[in-house]
Design brief:
Order of helices and strands: EHEEEEHEEEE
Structural class: alpha+beta
CATH architecture: Roll
CATH class: Alpha Beta
Number of strands: 9
Number of helices: 2
Length: 132
């Protein structure tokens, strides 16, 4: 199993459901899996490590004060796209949950979607530098 120097870990309720979501909707491929307790997905130069909140793996172990890892929050990976409107339409048809509508800023347009455990993914379409 090849491990990149930089990876993102997401705590997920169901590793298999998360694998299906990321591979079917966002173009990731499964690189490794250890049953329901661990998986590594990759897309281009990003690896996403999936771990459940309970289990034998290090990512699921409680902190010294007893706090347990949990999915969700506001931290997120960003997936760049050149066709935000079309991608959003496709994902909506597939029943993917979004937290907001498309918003625009000086760098481009974005929208936040949730994986099956509530972890965020930002779909981001950079602004056209020629339009500025």
């Amino acid at each position: 199993m090849k491990l990149d120097a930089l990876m993102v870990r997401y705590i997920v309720d169901d590793v298999d459901a998360a694998i299906a979501f990321y591979t079917q909707h966002l173009g990731f491929r499964a690189q490794a899996q250890s049953g329901p307790y661990f998986a590594i997905l990759e897309r281009e130069n990003l690896q996403v490590v999936l771990s459940p909140p309970h289990g034998p793996g290090g990512g699921s172990q409680p902190m010294p004060d007893g706090t347990r890892p949990a999915p969700g929050g506001w931290n997120r990976i960003i997936v760049k796209t050149a066709r935000l409107d079309a991608d959003v339409a496709t994902l909506r048809k597939a029943g993917v949950k979004f937290r907001n509508d498309i918003v625009s800023g000086p760098g481009g347009r974005q929208i936040l979607l949730e994986d099956p455990s509530g972890n965020l993914v930002e779909l981001f379409e950079p602004a056209d530098p020629a339009a500025g």
